[in-house]
Design brief:
The protein has ten helices and eight strands. The protein has 252 residues and is of the alpha/beta class. Bound molecules: 1,3-dihydroxyacetonephosphate.
């Protein structure tokens, strides 16, 4: 399966920094990357990304993603951005259920499942994030937690589950410099793959990304695992040389 390397810029950047970052990525992007590449930018910068693709054609090889999407279609939901709005700006992906949204915004498994459904209905691929906290890992609950999180999305989306991208992001590895070992990550990915297999006969279509302190030096060993189909990259996606090295690792 073609791997996917997706940058999650989180709440970082400004017009000048984004332009420099995207130009540097464009300059180093292989002419025909063997992997798919995406950047999930803050919503106000989607227009900038679109404008830059027109100015720097190489950037058309990078797909645009959002970091969140409303579960609602339209109406009195102040501050929310609908999937249809994202679609108008050419978004191919929307991250849903990132642990930072679950933690700071109280998003439940059911809300995350509804967001995935809203994205799919608008023709946007949700990148559904699951992952355990350190306390849950230490209590031996990792499998149970990620299965519960994925089960909600399967329940709400039925056979459309084959259209999602799944991302395993252990909360304790996000932004901490602590990465799951390739073996630890692979073990959880295998659990998720088995769960997906029971829900769809199209499991071969579903990419399962790893996220959590993936960087230029550990990407190759993580991406070499049988069930790791790409990466969701935070900090390292803000530095062009690092992001390019991860793309190169996925191409190898
Ligand atoms: P870091 O790569 O900064 O650990 O962030 C991972 C992440 O949360 C991507 O969504």
């Amino acid at each position: 399966m073609k791997k996917l390397i997706a940058g999650n810029w989180k709440m970082n950047g400004n017009l000048a920094a984004n332009e420099a970052l995207l130009r540097d990525i464009a300059a180093g992007l292989p002419a025909q990357p063997a992997c798919a590449v995406a950047v999930c930018v803050p919503a106000p910068y989607m227009a900038q990304f679109k404008a830059m693709v027109a100015a720097v054609p190489v950037l058309s090889g990078i797909d645009l993603g959002a970091q969140d999407v409303s579960s609602q279609q339209s109406g009195a939901f102040t501050g929310e951005v609908s999937a249809a709005m994202l679609k108008e700006f050419g978004c191919r992906y929307a991250i849903v259920g990132h642990s930072e949204r679950r933690h700071y915004h109280g998003e439940t498994d059911a809300v995350v499942a509804d967001k995935a459904k809203a994205a799919l209905a608008a023709g946007i691929t949700p990148i559904v994030c699951v992952g355990e906290t350190l306390a849950e890992r230490e209590a031996g609950q990792t499998g149970e937690v990620v299965k519960r999180q994925l089960a909600a999305v399967i329940h709400t989306n039925g056979h459309c589950i084959s259209e999602i991208v799944l991302a395993y992001e252990p909360v304790w590895a996000i932004g901490t410099g602590k990465t799951a070992t390739p073996e630890e990550a692979q073990a959880v990915h295998a659990v998720l793959r088995t769960q997906l297999k029971a829900a769809t006969d199209q499991v071969a279509r579903v990419k399962i990304l790893y996220g959590g302190s993936m960087n230029a030096s550990n990407a190759a060993s993580l991406l070499a695992q049988a069930d790791i189909d790409g990466g969701l990259i935070g900090g390292a996606s803000l530095k062009a040389p690092d992001f390019l090295k991860i793309i190169a690792a996925a191409n190898a």
